[in-house]
Every structure is written in structure tokens, then in C-alpha cells.
Amino acid sequence: MQGLNDLSTFAAALEQRLDQSSWRYDPVSGRYRGSNGRFLSQSAVEALVDGRINKLGTLLRRLTNMLSNGDITLVQWQESVREALKLAHVQAAIIGNGGRDNMQASDWGRIGQRLRAEYRYLEGFARDLLAGSISAPMAIARIGMYSQAVRGSYWEGTTIRQEKQGYSLMRRILDPQAKHCDDCLRYAGRGAVPIGSLPMPGQRCACMSNCKCSVKYMRQQAPVVAV
User: Fold this and answer.
1) Rounded CA gap, 43 and 26, in Å?
2) Which of these, 25, 45, 67, 82, could form a disulfide with 99 (CB 3.0-4.6 Å)?
3) What value does the mean pLDDT take over residues 168-183?
4) What span, in angstroms and rounded, lies between the C-alpha atoms of 185 and 20?
5) Domain boundaries in the chain?
6) Could you tell me the CA-to-CA distances from 104 to 97, 109, 165 in Å, in that order?
């Protein structure tokens, strides 16, 4: 259908390959450098991920609106959403892991497992749409959660990368502009804990994929020995 072809500009915005020309990962420092050679702040890296999530959200909402208007079929909608999710999750994982060259077989397997779970949720979504059990506004709200879930692939890759750099502690950071659930407040209240002691943002919390928390990683300080 012509309507589906009209999405080409939105799909192009997600990019078929992740453009790393504006940033690169420095394995010695474990940080990213911008095109000017200076280190990127953690917030700048997270903004890069957020930008891609926003583009994905725009695409998924338009696809869902087109489905609601009868411009595309349910099969076309589901196939297009699957492809968009795959690309976005892979890109987020690449950023989290420090670039495509740092992705190992286990990292690709991990993202594959995450995508299989997302596809199962999407199948349930498609069944609800086919049954007419959800309204168009409800469908738009629900599809938004799929784009936000991409952030989890970034944090999962980031945690693995930071462990390789010798970071052993993590601390949940609350976004000062967001409204937080009791779960996230409790996680943040625990302070610095060993990596793996806290779930990643969006996991095991009432916020689910809408969680806006971040994580700070730290190295274990050696105890001072009195002499």
C-alpha cells in the first residue's frame, strides 16, 4: 500500500546502520569520545539513546495510526513494528556495549533473547487488535511502551561493559524531572551496591518501560590500612 511506502522517511531516520562518525568508544578509559576527541558525558550518551527512542516512538505511533485508519493491514503493521524494534534494540545494545566491534556472541545472543520476548508481547498485542478489544487511543499508548523498552537494551549492555572496565558497584539515579514509583525510590535509597544487586531501569518496578531512572557505576575503593 502507498501509505506504508510513505514511512520511508521515518524508517530512514532510524538508520540501517548505526552511524558512529560522531562518537567512538575508548576502551582504555571505558568512555566515549565525541568527534572533537573530547569525552562525552554520561548524560550525552543517554541523550543519544533517547533520541533514537523518540524516533522509534514516532514511527510506531504512525504505523499504529495507519492501521487504525485502514491504510495498512494487521500483518503489515506487525511486520513493520518487528523490524523497527529489532533495529532499535540492536542499536541501543551497540551503544551500551561500546560500539559494534565490542559486541561478542554472548551480547548478540542476549539481544536476541530480549527481542524474542518483545515479539511475544507484540503477538498478544496483535491478537487484541484483531479482536477489537482495545481502542485506538489505547493502542497508541500501548505501542509507546515498546519504544521505551529499548532503553533496557542500552542499560544491559552498559552494565556488562562497565564490569569489564572493573566497576563493581552500581547506584540507581532518579531523574529529577520524572515521577517515580515506590520501587524506584526504594532502589535509589539503597545507595551503592554490588552490580547485579539492583534490576536495570524499567525492570521489576511499577514504572515498567516508562522508567526514567539511570545508573551510576563505581569501582570498589580499597580499604585504608593503618600503619
Assistant:
1) 17
2) 25
3) 92
4) 35
5) 2-156, 168-218
6) 9, 9, 16
Question: Which residues, 6 or more positions from 74, have their beta carbon under 8 angstroms from its beta carbon?
Answer: 67, 126, 129, 130
Using DSSP's 3-state secondary structure scheme, residue 198 falls into coil
CA 221 – CA 190 distance, rounded (Å): 18
What DSSP element (H or E) covers 24?
A: strand 23-26
Strand (E) or helix (H) holding 32: strand 31-34
Provide DSSP, 129-197.
HHHT-S-HHHHHHHHHHHHHTHHHHHHHHHHHHHHHTT--EEEEE--TTS---HHHHHHHHT-SEETTS
- Contact (Cβ atoms closer than 8 angstroms) between residue 202 and residue 146: no
Q: What is the pLDDT of residues 25-73, one digit of tens each?
A: 888 888 888 888 889 888 888 888 988 899 999 999 999 999 999 999 9
Q: What are the grid coordinates assigned to 69, written together?
A: 485508519
115 by DSSP, 3-state: which?
helix
